[in-house]
């Protein structure tokens, strides 16, 4: 079977598609993955070693000449999630949407079935035009309405309020996303739709939720096309590498260090924001007299003094690093959240935008993290206090370990592949 995949976003958005593409090739399928990475990461080596075709649709620089450091600071300081998403889309999605549709059109022509990131609505449009079956893949489980719990970010006033809450959430989402989706549908000659969550973000055939069932217990009122697969990550990592020698030496030379990293929130081009953020990290760790490993882009490594208290690095396999750390301080992105959970380590979430706040709430609900911190207004005292409380909470560490053991037994790739194969077979006989 020829299967086309399309992903957009950060490393955490794209990693499940790399794992899925690898697993599909191992099952004998012919796979093409179209990628738009928000900072231009190169996945060529992974594709070559795994045996699938990679097509890159790069993100252009801001057309209005805006400084990336200024854009990022504006996004963080706004505080209003709706306005944050609007800015992220304006600078990180809109400029590449038409190129994504062109790539999606080519992908659909050469594929029997396609699977797209739930934000990659150009693929849904291209598949609809070509009459090809399309599957959506979501890396977060807060986009499918249910009568069993409240919509994210809204107060829980009991079951009577859930339907109202989801309608309100839908209206808010539609305000930002629906004009974009319908605009592109109209330009493609398709009629408009009425709802983003049910008609743009989720396929009517199959919607894969790449989340552990230990976290997302499937609501009984969800239609059958919604499948909770478990986290989708490489079972046999193509690019699994040992920890760099300096990093391996550091983590084993003394008590387990604190991990600190904000992933794709740390743009190498946003230098002033990065300097300010790193200084908060350093001051917090120094106040505690602890050791820390700090992840930054290569161009920012010089901001951290490499001494007996700190070691900065650009990349490491989280599956090997996180189990060696005492606590994982991160931004709450889906990919890093998943890695910390699998490692069985408690976390401190410093949310910046969007679904990071949701993940913070989820980890607190599960008892594996304390209250979510916000990047806006963060200082070293707040961070050091959160670290102190986490390190002094053995119950939290125990729950994190137990949850990690449960998640490690899951095989999201296998569940997703079986669902995709079944979906294709069903579509053939329609």
UniProtKB/TrEMBL annotation:
The keyword Lipid biosynthesis does not apply. Residues 5-71 form the Glycosyltransferase family 28 N-terminal domain. GO terms for biological process: carbohydrate metabolic process; vancomycin biosynthetic process. Keywords: Transferase. Coiled coil: none annotated. One of its GO terms (molecular function) is UDP-glycosyltransferase activity. Residues 283-403 form the Erythromycin biosynthesis protein CIII-like C-terminal domain. Signal peptide: none annotated. InterPro entries: EryCIII-like_C, Glycosyltransferase_28, GlycoTrans_28_N, UDP_glucos_trans. CDD domains: GT1_Gtf-like. This is Glycosyltransferase.
